[in-house]
Amino acid sequence: MLNKVADFIGKHRLLSHDGLHLVALSGGADSVALLLILQRLGYRIEAAHCNFHLRGEESDRDEDFVKSLCKRYGVPLHVIHFDTKEYASIHQVSIEMAARDLRYGYFRQLCQDLGAASVCVAHHRDDAVETLLMNLLRGSGIHGLTGIRPKNGQIVRPLLCVCREEIEEYLHSIGQDYVTDSTNLVDDVVRNKIRLRILPLLKEINPKVSENISKTAQYLCEAERVFDESIAKQKAELIQTDPNGFPQSVSIPHLLEQPSPEYFLHEWLLPYGFNAQQTEQIFSQLTGESGREFLTSTHTLVIDRETLILVPLQPPMKTIKIPEEGRYRYNEEICFDVSLTNEISISKSDDCVTLDAATVRFPLTVRPVQTGDRFCPFGMEGHRLVSDFLTDCKRSLIDKRRQLVVTDRDGQIIWVVGLRSDNRFRVTEKTLEIMRLTISKGVNS
User: What are the residue ranges in the chain where pLDDT is below 70?
Assistant: First the structure.
């Protein structure tokens, strides 16, 4: 047993003999075996125990047991108490998630305080198999079928090379007892049902089922590395972004040339909250009608002709009034400057327009474009729908929704902001005074 664990630690470079390592010690067979094995392998260890106060006297029994165990073997012990139910209520999470958040938060802080190199947790091979089967039942992709990793940041799992039966046999061989969490014996949650019902049935079919599934997970880990590298290359080639990272856009024709476009969508969109069902819907609509939109709590994806456009959800567009000359803040990033001058000059910048002041009447209004808006584009005669003008300018559907216009007192559009002024308000040889409208962007505006 010691040799098997030592080889696994060395293969995956989990621990070092010159560093301090914390052992998450619950008092159960797995964590007790982990503590004693690491001590006998010569690692410098300290133990950490969390009392979640979820099982009454049994929780206190576990704490007393680990205190006695650590005293017996001379292992420094750190104990913390949590009001897990209160935490779950305040943060609106399940008891299981609350315990996980509290446990790992404590481990991170303790590592920092003690200068520990890692936290050793006692997940074993059967735990990894259970996790794989749980993810399989949920419809996981390849990442969920690799089980539990030997190392994840500061969290290391030296016992993934052995099964529960081997752990119990080891403890029996050295005459070491342990405590049992009674909740693990009740098949009231998915993991317990897999542990108590499914795996015993599978072992009747093949006694080596856990070992074989674990090997398959290892093969998938290797395949995952190749897969991740391929996806990373595809993302670099397909995803176009602005300097700030958004919007992100993907050409649909180029996407469909990929070996597995639907899975690329899954990998691209998953970090932004899009679930598998949404990804399937998006894929089915790629060659359909333009304008379809898909939302998560943080982002929106729009099919805009032959392009997929992903942007963070934006706060609602608003309307502001400009009663006179001055600087006016539209939002945290945009300001409008309005000035009147007798110096006749015509702006050639997209961020500034110069108008005949005599033709424009205050108050001005800055607002998002609306359905049916019309104006006379500079240099042209006759009215055009702003929506048609934006289409000619190759503006995306999302850009169209975010487009601002400035109107005068009579509601006439004098400027499609950043694109074109209205020809009716242009500067002519008869102009005596000009109005200069400037938009400035940036948090320091």
Answer: 184-188, 442-445
